[in-house]
């Protein structure tokens, strides 16, 4: 029995390199939502064993590089090989004091602020998320009117599924989950998995919630994916990226 179970588990191997094809050692690799983490070797190679078959997400992180999320489909007893290329994250320089200069936002946050000023969804920036003190992402989403968090049993234990109340009628709930975007890319959460298994609150700098097609901005209307129940866009830190404005420079007191 134990032998057949072990034979059914999969294995993920691969190589982590930089944009110039240089192997990257000491990268932290894991299957999102699980605890075991391995490090890439001097040659950038790694191996994750005893992987539960199914639709999974590989998470690769290394200080100084943008974190990578790679969707995988691991079969029973399969050894899957992947190559992960990490983009270097910009290194912040010491702030230069400039008077009458507006705070410059990273592109993702600039677009977020523009949609917040003109849209009709619900929006959370990093400071607002921190005030909620969420343990998981759904702790933030349950604050949005119309969003329903439904507990279900999954392969990794209890999970929270995200739905809109417009999908619940007189005949009860219908299987109509919202469509997630992570850093501007469609991120379908399928089966009995939860967004909580892929993204943690401390990595999030902004969240946008749109209920129904009439609210969804054009950039989040994926033609090949079902977004009729709504869209939730999540923006995460990349490297040392932050949406907090730099401290205001203090002028010295007037000597006169």
Q: Could you walk me through the main structural features you see in this protein, from its secondary elements to its overall organization?
A:
It is built from 4 helices and 16 strands. It has 256 residues and is mainly beta. It has 2 domains: 7-86, Carboxypeptidase-like, regulatory domain (Immunoglobulin-like, Sandwich); 107-236, Beta Complex (Ferric Hydroxamate Uptake Protein, Chain A, domain 1). The strands form 5 sheets. It has a 5-stranded mixed beta sheet. It has a 4-stranded antiparallel beta sheet with strand order 3-2-5-6, with no helix packed on it. The longest helix is centred in the middle third of the chain and has 12 residues, at 107-118. Mean pLDDT is 80; it is low at 100-104, 167-172 and 245-253.
Note the run of SSEs as H and E: HEEEEEEEHEHHEEEEEEEE
Q: Sketch the major β-sheet.
A: 5 strands, mixed
- Percentage of residues in strands: 25-35%
The residue ranges in which pLDDT falls below 50 over 5 or more consecutive positions are 100-104, 167-172, 245-253
Tally of helical segments? 4
